[in-house]
Queue: 4 jobs
Job 1
Amino acid sequence: MIIVTAASGQLGRLVIAELLQRVPAERIVAAVRDPGKVADLADQGVLVRHADYTDPAALDAAFEGASKVLLISSNDLGNRVPQHRNVIDAAARAKVGLLAYTSVLHADRSTLGLAAEHRATEDAVRASGLPYSLLRNGWYVENYTVSLGGAVAHGALAGGAGEGRIAAAARADYAAAAAVVLAGEGPKQQVYELAGDTAFTLAELAAEVSRQTGKPIPFHNLAQQEYAELLVNVGLPKPLAELIADADAQAAKGALFDDRRALSQLIGRPTVTLAAAVRAALN
């Protein structure tokens, strides 16, 4: 059986949707903290099991009979490494045939502040002795498009990435890659560096929004601290605001760029275009 952790989340649901196109539903397990949130998956024949990254006993029960496990990284910043180790240890006790982990692009050399927890998790995955695949996901284009409504309303797009080119892809693109690896359809690799086919600057994103809306939407580049303060002022928790501002600052230095097109090669189709991503966000 293929276990997908955090299956009620945005990425987890998309992974399961992709898996349902590749393997029978009864071979898929949605491992979630709240089974009630995935009743719709159970209705499709997916097995639903309770699992909590902080509860080793629950993880052992959830992983019973597992052949493959996808560990989707926790969103509990600062506490992710011990949580991930619990999942890795449970997968090792279950003696799974493949442990896949959603890491970050170029994790081994990334300057992103969030990369440290991913590197530590990757080390734990390797130390487990299990066959593994590290899905080093680039930036989700939704990280930017989710705020486009506000940018249009305020007549400007703010950020801190300067002229840095960002090879973002849609969450659905990364979900498809995970499903291909879990279903055994792709090349067997230990590390996949995954990013969008075409990189863009935030000024180019703003220009595309302007084109589609017919309104002038300039890009305002802010210093890292100024951008973090802006994000706090619009309601984001300070740790998350600082993480986003750091990501933009590192993107300005190339941390979110990759031009090898490994993602589209793996999933057998182009990744989402900037125009399509903006259109989906505005409609």
Note: The domain at 2-137 is CATH 3.40.50.720 (Rossmann fold).
Job 2
Amino acid sequence: MAPLFPPFDPEGKPRFAGFGRIPLRLLIPNLVTLLALCSGLTAVRMAVEDRFELALAAIVFAAILDGVDGRLARALKGTSRFGAELDSLADFVNFGCVPALVLYMWSLDQVGSIGWIAALLFAICAALRLARFNVMLDDPNRPPFAGDFFTGIPAPAGAITVLLPVYLGLLGIPHGPVTAPLTLVYTLAIGVLMISKLPAWSGKTLGKKVRRDMVLPLFVLVALFAGLLASYPWLVLSVCSVLYLAFLPLSALRYRALMAAHVAEQAAQDTPDPAV
């Protein structure tokens, strides 16, 4: 008789059921991912109950955990195929489906079926964005600097920025007759940015190494940001969303400059030396 719970193997390789144990370091990042998924799904319940403040807090918490689980897996040397697939599925739910549902219940429902179509398109864009990201990981022809940039804005950033109309509403900006149509257009625009080829700085290399004299100022800045986020969450999230969108053109210009330098370097290497 087959066991009720087959042995877990994060790499997906067949093994004998009675041999070997899974190191705890392989499980901790996956548990963090599952916690993020629980937080994202809880946001849907909060939105259904018209508790949008808690719904947004749950989405932000899921985004924070999403940034933690990958770094935790690399720090613990606990990366695995299982973890990568689980992370992609959790990202689609947390940053594709959940923000779309929250926006629909916030204002998109006021424009009827068109609002629902906009929510669907945003979720689909998030799915396509994640699928493309997984495929591009295996691209051997990417230039070295390409790892510092995303192709299109990432799903977590898309989820945080697309909720800007909700932040503004919670700040006290009243709903008007044009609120729902503007939210619809904005939702579609963020969805297009996710599936576009716009280079967005990833920030993955930021914080890998910190100068000794910058450790204490970094702690102060992080504590300051956490305090501001806890005290003025909607204002901080609104400002961060606007600044992120404003930074995208600068990121694209930086990528273009690096690509031009890379192409020139490749051309110089491929050109034969006339002195030889």
Note: The longest strand covers residues 149-151.
Job 3
Amino acid sequence: MRRTITWIIGTLTVFALATAAGAGTGGGPDFEIPRPAESGRVERVNTVVGYLDGQSTATFRYPGAEYLKIHVGSLLVLPGDYLTVSNADGTEEHRITGTGWAMSVSGDTAKVRLHQSTVLSATVGQLTTVIDKVARGFTEPERQTKAQESRDRKRGREESVCGGNDQRDAVCYKSTDPTIYRKTKAVARLLIRGVELCTAFRVGTSNRLITNHHCVGNAEDAADTEVWFNYQCAECGGYDVFRPTKVWLDQVLATDKTLDYTLFTVTSFDLVQKFGFLELDLRRPDKGEELYIPQHATGAPGTVAMTSDQDRAGVCAVSDNAYDGYAADTDVGYYCDTEGGSSGSPVLSRNTNKVVALHHFGGCPNSGVRMELIYEHLKGLL
């Protein structure tokens, strides 16, 4: 399902990556450009749903999968008829309006149903819909294995856990620090092309969200990206998860490779307004300033990285406020724990509870692009 994509390319000159990597205090001689973390795999199914008896429904099940997402290769239905995809118990249902990826359903079962407006003869049997692929999320053991492989690899600037993993479920702060908990609600998980993960967040009161350019950097990425709000554990350390509110990425308003940002809108904005928004802190944060990062590390329900066994005070803080990203002196360095899927997360100051940086690199220290630099590009759009 394709949506209209508006591209307004950021104006900052893109430095050669080798120069950006080696310049200044934080760069190394070589590093790999981060990519969104894997969230699952695509299975070929080639299943037909049509008007003949026994063909008007189809069920797909992959035991233990976190989500299922069907891909419609061809869609032939009569005027007024339509298809839906729902989860096992029918509590989540999405209408299918065209070819391409449909909205995912949570859980390991997806039921596709053809809804007919009238009773028709078998002469329409040649009108069929072909579901050619299913993207299925990793099972919990698969997800843990992937996360461990990423930690063991520790290559270049991929998102990194520094020391022990000190992230906690977002809901753990609901009573102890309700301000931090409220801020986590404005942070969303991105599901890109059915099998890749990043994080994004609402900025300001209008329909505006930010993630990394290396997560959503072209029309193909944007056209098949889901945005999940309220994907969080219901209890601290528990397993039950709130049912997320899912919308599509709609329009890309601006993107820039050097500062690694993309500003975008979503469809059905009214559904996600209630989750609030984050404000920007338009200054270079001080060295030693305490930070926290709400995120969807490994695509899991929302967590917060705030405590750190790598920082003297036990709380992650700015280790370098003149750190190198894709260019010299664009980033803030810190030892807050991140993992694959954390790209695009907001880095907030504990002093102001506002966003000082856009997380994009690992490497211990990890780093985010300073928000006052990004704002100079986007101030006319926010």
Note: The chain has two domains: 17-38+156-378, 40-137.
Job 4
Amino acid sequence: MQALVIVAHGSHLSPGSAQPTYDHADTIRETGAFDEVREGFWKEEPSFREVIRTVESDEVYVVPLFISEGYFTEQVIPRELRLEDWDPDRWDSDGTSASQATLDVGDAAKTVHYCGPVGTHDAMTDVIVQRAESVTGDPDVGEGVALVVVGHGTERNENSAKAIEYHTQRVRDLDRFDEVQALYMDEEPEIDDVTDHVDADDVVVVPLFISDGFHTQEDIPEDMGLTDDYRTGWDVPGEVDGQRIWYAGAVGTEEFMADVLLERAADAGADIGDALDQVAEWTGGAPATGAGD
């Protein structure tokens, strides 16, 4: 038997924070690729510490629903799961290339394949493009359009920006959009000045966040000038300084994210059968880069 455990941050303050995790887990359950699919959270129940003990399977694939390698993926999650002999060096990563490490659980007779976060997987590039297609309603969106990928950014963890830059460059390499730019909330260049950084009349803004919360639903729309008060909402597209802004909301809410979770588990050795094809059929996802091939 094999199980998939999706671990995410969750929130005591934002009740919708966990919803993408549950939605993607439900999609993967429908494929039948795993005998069990469980969710675990840092700020909600079931907790990281408990979730492995709810699984009957001996073979467990743990995929962090996080954007970057850092404090949570390298320290908190392995500690709470009690993964024996864990060390970040076992990922042999440069900050964006974590794959998987096979470990034992300290107080449970299980083998855990601990995967890198979804946010650094190559298939995330496909999801960013899919998000641009979804918000504009145009499966061929690109010509005459600028794409902006927004990250949190922090001087405390350089890997936070690495994930943003990595996917921004991969989208740029597709040569699909007229312009592709990475902007940040807490670093330069900042999202506040979005119209200073792109010239196209139409700008698609995709936040590389897992769920919609304070940052994506309050801070970013106000910072960009889409609205003076997030409580009154904003138009999609909205106009800022003469440019149309198509604000997509958190990339993690895109249905095709289930594909990335499956890709991570498959890369770690999980037998997922035709689950990827099923997800693509259900969500309308069409790989933009062929990253998951």
Note: The chain has nine helices and ten strands.
